[in-house]
Amino acid sequence: MTTNPRKKIIIDTDPGQDDAVAILLALASPELEVLGLTTVAGNVPLALTSRNALMVCELAGRRDIPVYAGADRPLLKPLVTAEFVHGKTGLDGPTLPEPTLALADGHAVDFLIDTLMHEDRVTLCPLGPLTNIALALAREPRIAARIERIVLMGGGGFEGGNITPAAEFNIYVDPQAADLVFRSGVPITMAPLDVTHQALTTRARVAAIRALGTPLGEAVALWLEFFERFDEQKYGQEGGPLHDPCVIAWLLRPELFTGRDCHVAIETASPLTQGMTVIDWWGVTGKPANAHVLGGLDADGFYALITERLARLG
Ligand code: RIB
Ligand code: CA
Fold first, then answer.
1. Is 314 domain-assigned?
2. Does a structural domain hold residue 108?
3. Mutation to probe ligand 1, out of 11, 12, 19, 79 (largest number of atoms < 8 A from CB)
4. % of the chain exceeding 70 in pLDDT
């Protein structure tokens, strides 16, 4: 029986507790070959997202994973960060040692271009603002035809926005970058708030992760308990949406999700709605689909996958 070849991925990230769980899920999954992490300013400034990415790799015992620092600001807009959600370090919750790992030499955008020009069938997994991805596409347009797929967390449809009434944070921080990515012609799978808001960190789900009885399980439980408090207060429900692991879970178990191919456009100009993802869910524009947009989630299956895989990291 032929086994599926491992899927080569690069995770572009702004850790962020939910980014951290997504990275751990990827590193725990033999179906995936993580070629590297690229960091971007988003939840917290670049120096912290880079430090946090190194910490997560060390926590996973994966000192072999190269981490490249990327853009420290959006293409045009001033940087907006989200310490009010993620804490001042971006990974508030547990007390973890400072990373002993160093960043890889070179810029994240150069790593993206070099890797994509030399490796076939690489999937990009952006979990933060799309600045690095847009810079790579602008610097070397030939990569567009070489990227296997971009599977990203970002945008809002029926859920609207979370940083403004109209816009989700990752797209809002750099709408110009998102516009370039969605116009690139690269196959896209999009995990918007419509689906991530179904992935709530309920008490039972966090307890199952803590019950792993490992230092990593405890760290993740403490991350989630810190991360969820803002959204619990905001939305008035038990648990917070665990956004970024939806990207990795879709790669591993697409059957946990439902979705449809849609045209998606990004508002870049309006002061009122900039960063809004205009998802043509009902196909009323007649414009060709440029993204597979996720809409439904088997949340219990999602958390069972995460918990089972975290157990493998010990
Ligand atoms: O809006 C949620 C997204 O913004 C997640 O990726 C979270 O980590 C933040 O980057
Ligand atoms: Ca993120």
1. no
2. yes
3. 19
4. 99
- Whether residue 136 lies inside any domain: the answer is yes
- Catalytic, 243? Answer yes
Distance 43 CA to ligand 2 centre (A): 7
Nearest to 38 by CA among 200, 148, 150: 150
pLDDT tens per residue across span 144-165: 999 999 999 999 999 999 999 9
User: In angstroms, what CA-CA distances link 300 with 29, 171, 201?
Assistant: 18, 27, 11
- Residue 51: inside a domain, yes or no? yes
List residues, by chain if needed, whose CB lies under 5 Å from ion ligand 2: 14, 16, 19, 127-128, 244
Instruction: Provide the domain count of the chain.
Output: 1
The confidence score (pLDDT) of residue 40 equals: 99
- In CATH, what number is assigned to the domain containing residue 172? 3.90.245.10
Using a 6 Å cutoff on CB, does residue 153 contact ligand 1?
Answer: yes
In whole angstroms, give the CA distance from residue 254 to residue 29: 14
pTM for this structure?
0.98
pLDDT tens for 249-259 read: 999 999 999 99
Opening angle at CA 100, ends 99 and 106, nearest 5: 90
Six-digit token string for 103: 């960043």
Q: How many CA atoms lie within 13 A of 131 on its CB side?
A: 29
* Pocket perturbation via mutation, ligand 1, pick of 13, 23, 37, 43 by most ligand atoms within 8 A of CB: 43
Query: DSSP per residue over 103-164, as a string?
Result: PPSS-HHHHHHHHHHHSSSEEEEE-S-SHHHHHHHHH-GGGGGTEEEEEEE---STT--SSS
Instruction: Please provide residue 69's backbone torsions phi and psi, each rounded to the nearest 5 degrees.
Output: -80, 140
Q: From the candidates 86, 197, 243, 292, which is the catalytic residue?
A: 243
Beta-carbon contacts of residue 103 (< 8 Å; ≥ 6 apart): 50, 54, 67, 68, 69
pLDDT of residue 314: 74
**Residue 172 belongs to what domain range?**
7-308
